[in-house]
Design goal:
The chain has seven helices and 17 strands. It has helices spanning 16-27, 60-71, 122-127, 135-138, 157-163, 182-191, 280-298, and strands at residues 7-12, 32-35, 77-79, 83-87, 92-96, 99-108, 112-114, 131-132, 147-151, 170-174, 194-197, 200-206, 211-216, 222-224, 226-230, 233-235, 267-269. The strands form four sheets. Strands 1, 2, 3, 4, 5, 6 and 17 form a seven-stranded mixed sheet that branches. Helix 1 (16-27) runs parallel beside helix 2 and helix 1 (16-27) packs parallel to helix 7 (280-298). The longest helix has 19 residues, at 280-298. The protein starts with 6 loop residues before the first strand and ends in a 7-residue tail after the last helix. The structure holds flavin-adenine dinucleotide (FAD). The site of flavin-adenine dinucleotide has 40 residues, from helix 1, helix 4 and helix 7.
């Protein structure tokens, strides 16, 4: 018996990757259901300055609002729930809330999550613009400023090295004791960069000077212009708990081919959950590729490009 599908495609994730996928597919007149539990990394961005068309920058929340407004006339079904995928023979069942959806294709746009420093006020500090995560995004604005980098393993030195392009006034805050590799010891020496070992007791914003004050038990307070968090991140995996056969990289990213299709036929992945540069433009590019391919495949390969 033929399956009665609820939608052509389900999109899991309502960040830029998911919203732009929905826009493309609806403009191709495909039926779409978009699931989102509203934890896009974009929410944390006080000002995006590297996005095409926004010379004066735009806040992450404003960008999300604009994308929702752009999508609204195309009326996709939007479900504000956590979705879980169950693979059937050549289609998928999705469980969200109390409901089930049967779809032909899926786009995973579930993003990733940053590890946060062990303090409660990180969201507030982020909003104030004194805690940052992505020097590719905003390193330029930090040129010649006094910057701290919070790390807890050798891996965190990658951000330190990247930041040397913008400032030499760097201080590494190592929250856990570990032995840096010889390459990083050489880097520390070359930069004449201080390393402060020991857990954080507080991070606070100084209203008057606009500075961030870093407090560790074993050191006097340190005033900096801004601190980058380099404590790692992980791909959000709530959607795929019940899914088998999905290949991932060593770091946990979903592996995809040139059309963004994963090792599970019919399941695509875009944006931060794929091994690629974690940037809005990249997520949006992935979305265009995945959704156009899905449309072509569903149209029995009547390709237009
Ligand atoms: C502080 C900060 C500053 C940044 N600055 C910039 C910048 O200036 N420029 C730039 O290009 N990039 C910047 N980035 C990176 C940018 O935010 C990401 O590249 C972008 O958000 C990726 O989009 P995405 O759609 O892949 O994932 P996200 O935007 O993270 O969206 C993923 C969505 O999926 C949802 N989701 C996950 N699992 C499920 C599930 N099972 N069911 C339902 N929903 C689910 C989440 O709730 C979330 O809404 C910054 C990131 C941070 C943290």
């Amino acid at each position: 018996m033929a399956q009665k599908f609820t939608h052509d495609c389900a999109i899991i994730g309502g960040g830029p990757g998911g919203l732009v996928s929905a826009l493309y597919l609806r403009r191709f007149k495909r039926t779409v259901v978009l699931f989102d539990n509203k934890e896009s990394r974009v929410r944390w961005i006080p000002k995006i300055r590297n996005l095409i068309g926004y010379a004066d920058g735009i806040s992450g929340q404003q960008l999300l609002n604009k994308l929702h407004r752009q999508l609204k006339p195309f009326k996709p079904d939007v479900v504000k729930e956590t979705a879980q995928i169950f693979r059937k023979k050549n289609y998928f069942e999705i469980h969200a809330g109390q409901k089930k959806y049967l779809v032909k294709k899926i786009i995973l746009a579930t993003g990733m999550k940053d590890e946060q420093p062990p303090i409660e006020n990180f969201a507030d500090l982020c909003e104030k613009g004194v805690l940052a995560y992505c020097p590719i995004c905003d390193g330029y604005e930090q040129s010649e400023r006094k910057i701290a980098v919070l790390i807890d393993c050798d891996h965190g030195f990658r951000k330190v090295k990247f930041l040397t392009n913008f400032t030499k006034n760097l201080c590494v805050i190592a929250l856990k004791k570990f032995k840096p590799s010889s390459v990083h010891v050489a880097l520390i020496k070359k930069l004449n960069c201080k390393v402060r070992w020991g857990s954080l007791s507080r991070l606070s914003y100084q209203e008057k000077s606009g500075a961030l004050v870093i407090r560790q038990k074993s050191h006097p307070p340190l005033k900096v212009d801004l601190a980058y968090v380099a404590l790692g991140s992980h791909v959000v995996g709530s959607a795929i708990k019940h899914l088998h056969g999905l290949s991932r990289t060593r770091e946990g990213y979903f592996k995809v081919n040139s059309q963004q299709e994963t090792s599970v036929p019919g399941l695509y992945a875009v944006g931060d959950c794929v091994y690629a540069l974690s940037q809005i433009s990249v997520a949006v590019g992935h979305a265009a590729i995945a959704s156009t391919n899905i449309h072509n495949v569903l149209s029995k390969n009547r390709r237009v490009h």
